[in-house]
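Structure ticket #2291
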Amino acid sequence: MATMAAVLSEDNRALLRLIRERKPKSLTALAELTGRHVPNLSRSLRTMEGYGLVKLEREGHGIAPVALATEFLVVLR
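Resolution: structure written out below.
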């Protein structure tokens, strides 16, 4: 439960929306949009990739993030 809350934090949801809306072509471009450092973004995005929320596509020498999910429904039973 704590892991899910961390992965779906407000910052990460905002990051996913930004990726969906602005479609950055690289992690460097995304870093410029967010003001975050590339290594920090890379760690966050790899974690979100593990949960199927984002896809990191290789493009030439760079990596382009693609948001796969931007809306969430959490059902607890």
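Closing remark: The longest helix spans residues 10-22.
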